[in-house]
């Protein structure tokens, strides 16, 4: 802030009031500069309304009306998108076409949507492909595969990511889970259950007396088979309770008991009213797809791993008698075939492109295992060949293309899929330490001129664009070239922050206003990354007494210019003794004979204590007689100044170059009296009170600071 009435003479004082004055913002009472004294959070408070006023430093009266202004806090990207309504639950009918609406998710970013891309959110699916897709802008989830069957799989868990900065590198991300259920539709006709066989016990009775109840005697196969009575034929119908595996057991033998439902107790003595029969069931072998050793494979690979690097392997086995060789391939419906390859014989998975964790952190795709003689392998192999050669390499590719066209419309895909076994592959891309840590915000800090050694003037922290693992630590230190006799040093607090610490007893803004401090920041990941960040430190005056500061500035200039030769008239502030002279014996400073010859004085009309004014007429002086005594001459000149209306009523200097004979008086001034400043003891300044504190500190700083003793 600056007032037009402020002429730089130190007569104006600036005050600050309103929202955050004194706690968040402070004002330099002399210059009007406003500084923030603590970190600001736009999401906590986006703007501050303050009032400022310029007052007279002596009378404390306002020089101008109070003015109001607003400080807006500029946003940075420090908030990740959040799904406030997650996790989500949704449903969609089974057998829905591709693109059927499922659900819309929404992530909220607390950053400023009107500034940059900090709040521009892009949606993507991390887990749940190829079954579902999401619109990157709207967050609408839709089906991505046709004819999803509830009877095959009913529940799906989809992992959704929202990333700000428009999805660009360095954006912050948040995730949520969407649980999707396929609801049932009437897509299956009624069917008779498959039975294994029938047995019949003959009872010559009639009616209800001939009703028979069948039971399987506990033993071999009792938990795999069941038997019920056909009410119409009174036959025992044997049914299967659990699936059978030919490779595990090829035959089962058990006993079935037949008894009457309605007994007549009068005939118990005739013997038990039941009979038993032995049943033998043979299990037939069918051609089954190979079986993977795990239900899910999870693998890890570092980003930027060279193309062709093997990251894992899958294993499937044909359990049928006379097992066949197994071939592996990536499901063409998933996206994994472009980033990874699989060895058809060994099942090893390798990278096919360079991976970037900041772009995609996880891949989810399917591997199909099929027998060599199975048409599913031929189908997928032909699919890849046609994709590679676009059909031009085959002279009779029409029939094959018909199969592929039918497959893409799912006319034969389900049949072929039943002959091959799928398994999901989840590959996590691990972070490589690529980026060095940097200071979170470009800092420019300040230090008071009267600062003491060991004072912390700024706290700094670091940020790393890499995914920071648990326990990530940053270390702070000075660069080697700045560690030799430093004016400032860096104190590492071992908590990912550091403090800028003073090493001197006071700083002079006149001697050096800006200091540049190179700070080296290292992370703890492998390989170690580091960067050098230069902080700008500005020396500020922290005392409001402008007169004292101005006096010190002039005191230290030590210039030998003629009196009143400066472009700025500072007569109202400082009494300037240009030269005290050396007495009668000093013939270099003044011509003592001029004092003894008044006529010579009469010829010199120019005064050395004030600036000449061309508009003012020279004063008329009475001539002085030749033999006038010096004492009378001086008294005459004093009288002329007393009665002269043009004589200066302001603080001025009348130069008297003659002290008189035998004077025992000391110098009229101590300013520039000594040969060096080190010859003068300024300790007495501390006894003059608080108004001279800055002056005492500035004159004492050179005595207390010894750069050779700084460690």
UniProtKB/TrEMBL annotation:
Q: Which residues form a coiled coil?
A: none
Gene Ontology cellular-component terms listed: adherens junction; catenin complex
Which membrane topology describes this protein? Single-pass type I membrane protein
Q: Which InterPro entries match?
A: Cadherin, Cadherin-like_dom, Cadherin-like_sf, Cadherin_CS, Cadherin_Y-type_LIR, Catenin-bd_sf
GO terms, molecular function: beta-catenin binding; cadherin binding; calcium ion binding
Where does the record place the Cadherin domain? Answer: 3-83, 84-192, 196-292, 293-439, 439-549
The cellular location(s) given in this protein's UniProt record come to:
Cell membrane
Which UniProt keywords are present, listed alphabetically? Calcium, Cell adhesion, Cell membrane, Cleavage on pair of basic residues, Glycoprotein, Membrane, Metal-binding, Phosphoprotein, Repeat, Signal, Transmembrane, Transmembrane helix
Q: Which Gene3D superfamilies match?
A: Cadherins, TCF3-CBD (Catenin binding domain)
User: Could you provide one GO biological process annotation from this protein's UniProt record?
Assistant: cell-cell adhesion mediated by cadherin
Predominant cellular place of this UniProt entry's protein: membrane
Q: Which PANTHER family match?
A: CADHERIN-12, CADHERIN-23
Question: What function does this protein fulfil?
Answer: Cadherins are calcium-dependent cell adhesion proteins. They preferentially interact with themselves in a homophilic manner in connecting cells; cadherins may thus contribute to the sorting of heterogeneous cell types.
**What name does the UniProt record give this protein?**
Cadherin-12
Q: Which organism is it from?
A: Ovis ammon polii
């Amino acid at each position: 802030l600056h007032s037009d009435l402020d002429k730089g003479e130190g007569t104006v004082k600036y005050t600050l009031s309103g929202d955050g004055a004194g706690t968040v913002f402070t004002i330099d009472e002399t210059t009007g500069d406003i500084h923030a004294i603590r970190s600001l959070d736009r999401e906590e408070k986006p703007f501050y309304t303050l009032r400022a006023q310029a007052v007279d430093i002596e009378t404390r009266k306002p020089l101008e009306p109070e003015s109001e202004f607003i400080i807006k806090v500029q946003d940075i990207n420090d908030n990740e998108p959040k799904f406030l309504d997650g996790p989500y639950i949704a449903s969609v009918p089974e057998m829905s076409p591709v693109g059927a609406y499922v659900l819309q998710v929404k992530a909220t970013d607390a950053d400023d949507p009107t500034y940059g891309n900090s709040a521009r959110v892009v949606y993507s699916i991390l887990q749940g492909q190829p079954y579902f897709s999401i619109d990157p802008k709207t967050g609408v989830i839709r089906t991505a595969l046709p004819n999803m069957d509830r009877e095959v799989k009913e529940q799906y868990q989809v992992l959704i990511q929202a990333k700000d900065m428009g999805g660009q590198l360095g954006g912050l991300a948040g995730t949520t889970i969407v649980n999707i259920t396929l609801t049932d539709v009437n897509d299956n006709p009624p069917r008779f259950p498959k039975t294994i066989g029938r047995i019949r016990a003959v009872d010559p009775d009639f009616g209800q007396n001939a009703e028979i109840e069948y039971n399987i005697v506990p033993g071999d196969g009792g938990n795999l088979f069941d038997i019920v009575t056909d009410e119409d034929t009174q036959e025992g119908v044997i049914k299967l309770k659990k699936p059978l595996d030919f490779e595990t057991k090829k035959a089962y033998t058990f006993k079935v008991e037949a008894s009457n439902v309605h007994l007549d107790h009068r005939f118990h003595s005739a013997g038990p009213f039941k009979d038993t029969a032995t049943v033998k069931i043979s299990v037939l072998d069918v051609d089954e797809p190979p079986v993977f050793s795990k239900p899910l494979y999870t693998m890890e690979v570092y980003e930027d791993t060279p193309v062709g690097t093997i990251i894992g392997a899958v294993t499937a086995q044909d359990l049928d008698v006379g097992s066949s060789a197994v071939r592996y391939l990536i499901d063409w419906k998933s996206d994994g075939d472009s980033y990874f390859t699989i060895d058809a014989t060994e099942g090893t998975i390798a990278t096919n492109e360079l991976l970037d964790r900041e772009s995609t952190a996880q891949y989810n795709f399917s591997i199909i295992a099929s027998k060599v003689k199975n048409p599913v392998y031929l189908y997928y192999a032909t699919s890849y060949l046609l994709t590679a050669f676009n059909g031009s390499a085959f002279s009779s590719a029409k029939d094959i293309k018909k199969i592929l066209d039918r497959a893409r419309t799912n006319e034969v895909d389900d049949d072929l899929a039943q002959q091959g076994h799928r398994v999901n592959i989840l590959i996590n891309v691990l972070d490589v330490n690529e980026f060095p840590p940097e200071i979170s915000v470009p800092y420019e800090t300040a230090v008071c001129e009267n600062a003491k050694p060991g004072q912390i003037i700024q706290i700094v922290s670091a940020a790393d664009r890499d995914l920071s693992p648990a326990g990530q630590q940053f270390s702070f230190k000075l660069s080697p070239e700045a560690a030799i006799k430093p004016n400032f040093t860096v104190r590492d607090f071992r908590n990912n922050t550091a403090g800028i610490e003073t090493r001197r007893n006071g700083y002079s803004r006149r001697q050096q206003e800006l200091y540049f401090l190179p700070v080296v920041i290292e992370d703890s990941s492998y390989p170690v990354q580091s960067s050098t960040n230069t902080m700008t430190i500005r020396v500020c005056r922290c005392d409001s007494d402008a007169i004292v500061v101005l006096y010190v500035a002039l005191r230290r200039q030590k210039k030998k210019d003629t009196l009143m030769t400066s472009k700025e008239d500072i007569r109202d502030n400082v009494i300037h003794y240009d030269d005290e002279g050396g007495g009668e014996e000093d013939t270099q400073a003044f011509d003592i004979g001029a004092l003894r010859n008044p006529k010579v004085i009469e010829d010199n009309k120019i005064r050395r204590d004030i600036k000449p004014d061309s508009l003012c007429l020279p004063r008329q002086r009475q001539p002085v007689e030749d033999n006038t005594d010096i004492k009378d001459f001086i008294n005459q000149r004093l009288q002329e100044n007393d009665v002269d209306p043009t004589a200066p009523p302001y603080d001025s200097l009348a130069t008297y170059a003659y002290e008189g004979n035998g004077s025992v008086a000391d110098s009229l001034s101590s300013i520039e009296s000594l040969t060096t400043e080190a010859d003068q003891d300024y300790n007495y300044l501390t006894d003059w009170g608080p108004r001279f504190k800055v002056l005492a500190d500035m004159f004492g700083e050179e005595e207390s600071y010894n750069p050779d003793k700084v460690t």
